[in-house]
Amino acid sequence: MIGKIAGRLEYRSADHVLIDVRGVGYIVYVSDRVMASLPRNGEAVALYTDLLVREDNLQLFGFTTLVEKEWHRLLMSVQGIGAKASLSILGTLGEDGVSRAIALGDWNAVAKAKGVGPKTAQKVILDLKDKAPGVMAMGGTVAEAYGDEVIEPAQAAPVKRAPAKKANPAQAETLSALANLGYGPGDAASAVAEAAGADPDADTSALIRATLKLLAPKG
């Protein structure tokens, strides 16, 4: 399994790039969003990768974070979602948008991706809703792909490091607290996503209070 590619960006096409790693070129398929974030040709680059194995073909798909890679793997587990559709969803929404759409049950957001119809978008929500908390808990806690040393000769361009994201553990801690209180993962994730969207800087205590209000019986 090839889990990461680090080398020099040789060229880019509409949906893939070629990365040279010490003389060996790897074709890596990426979303529009990842493509737009890559450096210029000839510069150093690093991507987390997922290898798709078929009887007559091997394809590598590249991502800038482990969260994005995990969403790709989960999206492809949904019947009717292949690699192309998964990249389309990630390219349209980004990893945070996918997490929020699934947690809130917003299939309309998923359906905005090219090649994804309403029925398939609804199936994505239904199949992955209970899996959202685990991926959401990863958000903001993984190092960016550019944070590691790139395998390149000394004369190669230095690695461009993405700004480090400051981890905010409030969402993960709130999800854990709600689970301990007996709330289901789907309901908990929806409430946390809604509360965090209303107050992105809320600490754990404030977020727990806000989510409990949202989960309280109405009427």
UniProtKB/TrEMBL annotation:
InterPro entries linked: DNA_helicase_Holl-junc_RuvA_I, NA-bd_OB-fold, RuvA, RuvA_2-like, RuvA_C, RuvA_C_sf
Subcellular location: Cytoplasm
Keywords: ATP-binding, Cytoplasm, DNA damage, DNA recombination, DNA repair, DNA-binding, Helicase, Hydrolase, Nucleotide-binding
Gene Ontology CC annotations of this record: cytoplasm; Holliday junction helicase complex; Holliday junction resolvase complex
Family assignment from sequence similarity: Belongs to the RuvA family.
Assembly and oligomerization: Homotetramer. Forms an RuvA(8)-RuvB(12)-Holliday junction (HJ) complex. HJ DNA is sandwiched between 2 RuvA tetramers; dsDNA enters through RuvA and exits via RuvB. An RuvB hexamer assembles on each DNA strand where it exits the tetramer. Each RuvB hexamer is contacted by two RuvA subunits (via domain III) on 2 adjacent RuvB subunits; this complex drives branch migration. In the full resolvosome a probable DNA-RuvA(4)-RuvB(12)-RuvC(2) complex forms which resolves the HJ.
Domain topic, free-text comment: Has three domains with a flexible linker between the domains II and III and assumes an 'L' shape. Domain III is highly mobile and contacts RuvB.
Annotated NCBIfam families: ruvA
Protein name: Holliday junction branch migration complex subunit RuvA
Species the sequence originates in: Yoonia tamlensis
Gene: ruvA
